[in-house]
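Session log. Operator J.P. requested a structure for one protein chain; no other inputs attached. Running the standard single-chain path with token output.
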Amino acid sequence: MWCHLVGHYCFLVNFLWLSMCLPSHMLTLSQHKMEMFLSAVMLLLVGVQTAGSPVSVFRPTGGSVTLEFQGHLQLEKEDVDLIQWYFGQEKIMKYAPLRDSNTIFTYQDRVEFNKETFSLELKNLQKNDSGLYSREIIARETYVVAEYRLSVLDPVESPVLPVVYNWTSCDSCNVTVTCKGRDLSLTSTCDCSTCCPEEEHSTDSTLTLSFEADVITCNHSNPVSWQIATMDIKALCSRTGQNQDLSLPGPVSSWIRIAGGALIVTLCSAALYWWVKRLERGVTEQFVPADSPSTADTNV
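Structure written below.
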């Protein structure tokens, strides 16, 4: 919008300078033109005064938005000469009410202009539609400008809330949880009655961890959507006399089971080996022949 105003201003200044340099026999015509353009300068100055901070608008990908401004209610429709909508420096459309002429330059299949409210509706929004939109209303004695900062965002992903560590005894319960959402992560330690709230922000989303009515809540949100994951702390603290370390990953637990199994097999093998050796020794002693009496007498 400012670039549009500066461009108009530079054009008017150049025209005024040329008018002052014209010969004297063209002075009357130049003065008439000068009066016209001085009026245009006044309208331009009014527009600069009415220009404020852009209105922030957030919409989800694939959704729609209607950009409207209540300033037109102060204008008589028959006094309006031209309405123009811009996306950055690119002109989207223009409408001349007196001629009922409506021209769409871009967004051919995704834009709809309301001739009564001068609002602009954009459909099937995509991320590259994010940016600054401006509207200019040129009337006989007024120059109304409105600006909108549109942000098109994807809906957030569902967060996860795994338990990292859980210690439960007869008189206490400590639970450590991790709240994860896309590229954000929070870790907090809770007991049966309290849990430290946490919050973290990224460029387009927020992750919060809260505790209320015995429920731990992980909330992943942005201006257009939100998703939560919850956990009942009483369910984790209901059993007493238990110490569960849930931080061990699956492969570590598997190796522990394998090592335990190998130890049992080794002990069983050693016991079997000892039993077989003992059995063999007993069989050998049973079948060794003793000296007979007849043999002893013959030798004598």
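Operator note: The longest strand covers residues 143-153.
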